[in-house]
Amino acid sequence: MKHKIHRQLVPHALTTLGISATITAMHLLWVGEYSVALFFVLVAMLFDVLDGPIARRLGVVSRFGAYFDSVADTLLYLFTPVMLFFMLGYSSMLMWLACTTFVVFGIVRLVRYTQEGILDVHGKWYFVGMPVVWSVPLMLCTAFAYLWNIYIPELLLSAILVTGAFLMVSTIRFERPRSPRTLIALLVLVKVLIALAYLYGNFTSI
Question: How many CB atoms lie within 10 A of CB 25?
Answer without folding.
Answer: 26
